[in-house]
Every structure is written in C-alpha cells, then in structure tokens.
Amino acid sequence: MENLTVTNEKKYKTPETELIHKSTIDPHSKIVSLNHITRMLAGRRAKNKTIVQCHGVFDLLHIGHVKHLQSAKKLGDILVVTLTSDPFVNKGPGRPHFTETLRAEALAALSCVDYVIINSNQTAIPAILTIKPDYYIKGIEYQNADKDITGKISEEEEAVNSVGGKLEFTHDITFSSSSLLNRFFSPHSEEVLLYLEQFKNKYHIDEIFKYFENAKQSKVLLIGEAIIDIYHYGEAIGKSGKEPILVTKYHREELFIGGILAIANHLSNFCAEVTCVTMLGEKGEYESFIRENIRENVNIIFHYKKETPTIVKRRYIEEYSSQKLFEIYEMDDCYFNKDEKIEFEDSLKKQLSSHDMVVVADYGHGLLDTSSIHLIEDNAKFLAVNTQANASNHGFNCISKYKKADYVCIANRELQLNFRQKHICTLEQINKIMKEFDYKHIVVTRGVMGTLSCKKDEEIFSTPAFASTVKDRVGAGDAVLAITSLFASQKAPADLVGFIGNVVGSLAVNIIGNKSFIEKVTLLKYIMHLLK
Asked: Which of 99, 132, 192, 312 could form a disulfide with 188 if both were Cys (CB 3.0 to 4.6 A apart)?
C-alpha cells in the first residue's frame, strides 16, 4: 500500500491535505470531529485510498494497542481511530482513568494514526455509518462473537457490511488496560486488592457469568411500595433575616421512580419477565409518569388506597456541594381497608404460584400487614426479603416481621434495630437471627465496611467495599437486593453473593437517586475489570 508522506501531501493544495500535512508535525491536528470526517476523506476516496477504522476506549495506551493499530494501518492508506467518549465508557466507577482528551492526544501521537475522532455516541455504529470504512478492524479477542458480552460486534459487522466494508481481526499479542490499571493505578486499598486476588483464583469469570445467563429465564414477582423521589436542587444563599433558618435559591428539580419500581427496572435488564404488584394513592397520582419510565418488560399491577396520596419523598439539595438539606414525605402509612385488602391478597394469590422467585421490598409504608406477609411466606417458591428502616417507621419495620425467607438482604442498622441492640457484634447478631428465624441465606450491607454473607449452618464471609466514590446512597440497597436475589435463588455460594452485592453497590452509589439503573453490560464489564 502507498504510504502518505509530507512530499506526497504537498502536491495537493486543498484544506484537507493541508490539515494532513500539518498533522505530521502537530499530533493535535489529527483530532477531528465526526461531522467533518466525511468531507476530509472525500479527497482520499477520489484517489482510491483505502480507509481503515479502529474503535475502542484506549484507556492507558499500551504496546498491545500500538501493535493492533500498526497492523490495521497495513491494510490500507488512511487509519481513522474512533474513541469512546467519557460518558459511554461503561466499565464501572473510576473508568476511564484518563479523560477522552488525553486518550485522543495519546492516539494522535502515533505515526500510524491519521485521524482521531472522539465518538459521542453509545456505540461505534454511527461512526461506522459516517466514515464508511473499507476495513473495520478489531482485536483477535473479539473474533468469537458468542463471547462478546456487549453483543455489539455482530451489530458492528452488520453496519460495516451495509456500507460495503469488511470486518477484519488483528492477531498481535494482546494486553489488558484494565489489568494494567488495576496493577499500577488501582484506587483500591491493599485489603481490597488482596481480596480480589484471592477471589479470582477461586472463581472464573465464565462461572460467574453463567448465573447471569441462567437468570434470563427467571420469572420474578416483585411486591412493595411504589415511591416517587423528587430532588429539588438549589443554592444556599444564607440565613433568613427574621428566622434562624437557612434560605436557598431554587434551581431545578428531577423526578425519579423509586421503591419497588426501581427494583423492577434493575431486574428488567437481567430477566425476561418481571411482574410488579404495588400501590398508589386513591387518585393514582404519578401513574402516567411511572408508566412512561418503567421498562417495557415489566408488567405492573396497581392497587389504589383510598383517602391517601401516592408516596412521594422530596429531597432538598444544595446543588454545588450535592449535600441533602432536608426531606419531606407525602404519605399516609395506614393499611388497606377491608375491601382493598381482599382485592390485594387475591391479586397476590393469582401471581405467587406462577413465578419462580418473589422479591419483597417492605418499606413499612402500609402495603404489607401480617396476613399478607403470611400469604407470601406460605406460597412463594423462593422468597427474597428486605425491610427498610426510614424516618417514618424507625424501629417499627423490622425483618422479624418475616418468620421465614430463602434470602434476606438488610443493612447493618436494620439488623441492629431488630434486636434493639447496637453494641452487639454484627457476627453475633447474624448467628442469632439465623437460629431464631427460618432464613436460609442472609446478606448484611455495612457501607464502607462492605458486606457479610452467610448461609444457614455455614461460615460467614466478609467482602470489602469496592466503591471509591459515593454520589448518592439512595436506592443502593434496592439495587443490591435486586441483583443478589438472582444469585441467591440459584443457590450461589455465600461468598459469591457477597461479591456481587458489593459490585452492584459500588455502581449504585454513583447514581443520583434512581436517575439510571444497573445495566447488565456495565455490570459484566465492571466484574471483568475487577478480576483482570
């Protein structure tokens, strides 16, 4: 193939070739936008130049990347590298380690690279359709499409074929950016690194992923209160002139679906069929908003409670610091009246027998009383439960409401409230509750201290926390309950369930409210990142 040189470029005095000529001197000029690349490549195509495209994250550029790009350039004349922009690098918290600008500059500094484009799209497909490469090049690790957890390589090949190009694979030595980052730039403590080293020697990634694959066939029934979370953002401007109170200036607000609705959206990414039984206020406030934001594969069954509003939790936040100032609850936490209770329990009876797994998120806001709990306990094929302690039910909504469960996932504070003791060792409390109640498996989340996971008559496993940053803890427990239930229902080992819980928790605490949900691909990529 003909190589581009400074001499060749001087023959053609066009804006495009002037840019290429400049790029041999200044690597920064190689970084162009996707909107301009078509015009810039037009002259090359007119001279029968072959266009090659590579795509990736390229976080921590290493020798494997260099050899891959050099091999790609040998297939053509112009090598265009498209780079995943920061918001779409879904490899877990702390990634990318280097910003899109730094990654682009590193790629542009390579002599084999002609153009670098920061791709502000979720996938490479829009870039492929715009660039129309003659060859689209991936590394050998992508050759087996069945092992591509994103499922994107097949879609990328289809896009390449549609523009007359061809998918090819390089066969050079490969390295892992994740492995190198874990080794040299890890945000984790020595304790976490030692734990991960021991864990990956015990469990292979394929073994872990098999549980996710099996979960796709699960039919899950969710029972719990629907909650609307409203975040009011403002700016603290000082003390009131007449009262000893803080004054804030209103900026904006965001609405999220929460409670059992958030759990439904989390699980919808992992299961083909999810049914959710919940309640709204008498007038069905926010029902349209809920239906607009619930995932398509969630079948939602509403029950309406008379003379009460739909549960709303308003949080007032100082936007600059992201600190929560105070909360306001809109609710009436009385139980259903007699007729409503009969209708609710009849609905449960119809659903319980036809689902493989039942997940109960009991927020203590008036949905589940003693008789409905007994109904669920007696009829669920597999029962996973969480009872939440919050400002409106503090000390009144304990896990001991449920006398038996296949899986219990609660916070350490909720375990302490159950025994009205905060000075007894958590390990002692776990042993005590497993003896007093018919619980087959329990996970206790402890924030920065990680999780404790125990099966009946087995040892207790401790998993350190993986989160290095925390944006918002709201909804994190719901996410952990949702995904760990899928593993517990398959009788996964206790230490594996604890690991999955902390991985999910690390992702969840970096989501504001329930603005987004645990995505399967992101979770799998994060697990791969941790275990490389």
From this structure: 192
What's the pLDDT at 316?
95
Rounded to whole angstroms, what are the CA distances from 528 to 60, 175, 204, 495?
16, 14, 10, 17
Could you identify the residue written with the tokens 């003379």? Answer: 307
- Residue 454, classed as helix, strand or coil, is strand
pLDDT of 405: 97
516 CB-near residues (< 8 Å, 6+ apart): none
For every residue of 234-275, DSSP letters joined together read EEEEEE-SSSSSEEEEEEEEEEEEEEHHHHHHHHHTT-SEEE
Contacts of 7 (CB under 8 A, 6+ apart): none
Q: How far apart are CA 197 and CA 39, in angstroms?
A: 50
> Which positions of the chain have pLDDT values less than 50?
1-25
Query: What's the pLDDT score for residue 177?
Result: 58
pLDDT tens string 238-270: 888 889 988 999 999 999 999 999 999 999 999
Query: Which amino acid, 362?
Result: D
| CA atoms of 369 and 138, how far apart (whole Å) | 56
451-490 pLDDT, tens digit each: 999 999 899 999 999 988 888 999 999 999 999 999 999 9
Q: Decide if 513 contacts 259 (C-beta within 8 A).
A: no
Contacts of 183 (CB under 8 A, 6+ apart): none
Element (H, E) at 467: none
Classify 530 as helix, strand or coil: helix
- Give the pLDDT confidence score for residue 87 in this predicted structure: 86
| Whether the Cβ atoms of residue 292 and residue 259 lie closer than 8 Å to each other | no
Taking the model in full, what pTM does it have? 0.78
Return the structure tokens found at 54.
């590579």
Nearest in space to 80 (alpha carbons), one of 53, 107, 101, 100: 53
HSE at residue 291, side-chain half, CA atoms within 13 A, is 8
